[in-house]
Design goal:
Length: about 200
């Protein structure tokens, strides 16, 4: 189990070191993903001119359509053997709510995008953000994601992983709206940006 330092300065150094370790292969993977993306979109390597007939794009498009159809996806709920029989009466409403949330949050479209790029990059991630009582799914490009141990295949077995992303100052203020240390966090980030 990972031990996180209690001292604020030591903790910040610990987190920065952890981020660096998680992203150690990022640039190498970024180059690999760039090549894969070029083959998908243009049928050729990044430094070559586009192929006259790109057969990769339609092949992946067809494969994705065989694997997933947003229009016909429906979820069902199974309570399991240990559930009390009174709970089964809630299943139809829960299933309807789950299917509505799937469609209203655009999760169906985000999943389709993630599946397409998983065929291109060999992996893909969807990040679920809960805000204002709703789920907001986001596709994550795998080059912006890193794990502490690349030899371990499952995320739930990782001690740490990192999602690298950009955020505007106004969005940061909005997300930290009621945070007690909002101003000091923003000052710290501005100081870090100037030192780079």
């Amino acid at each position: 189990q990972m031990i996180i330092p209690k001292d604020a300065e030591e903790r910040e150094f610990f987190y920065r070191d952890l981020i660096r370790k998680c992203l150690v292969s990022r640039e190498t993977r970024r180059a690999d993903y760039s090549a894969l993306k070029s083959y998908y979109l243009f049928g050729s390597a990044p430094e070559e001119s586009p192929a006259q007939y790109n057969k990769i794009f339609p092949h992946i498009d067809q494969l994705v359509s065989f694997l997933y159809s947003a229009d016909t996806t429906r979820f069902s709920i199974n309570l399991g053997a240990s559930a009390h029989e009174d709970q089964y009466r809630y299943i139809p409403r829960l299933e309807q709510a789950l299917n509505d949330e799937w469609n209203n949050s655009n999760a169906d479209q985000v999943f389709n995008t993630a599946l397409t790029w998983a065929m291109v990059y060999n992996c893909s991630f969807i990040k679920l953000v809960v805000r204002d009582g709703s789920i907001h799914p986001y596709y994550i490009d795998p080059c912006n994601f890193g794990v502490l141990r690349e030899d371990i295949p499952y995320l739930d077995r990782q001690e740490a992983f990192v999602h690298w992303y950009y955020i505007t100052k106004s969005d940061l203020y909005a997300r930290l709206y009621s945070h007690p240390r909002r101003d000091s966090i923003v000052r710290q980030l501005q100081a870090d940006r100037k030192s780079v």
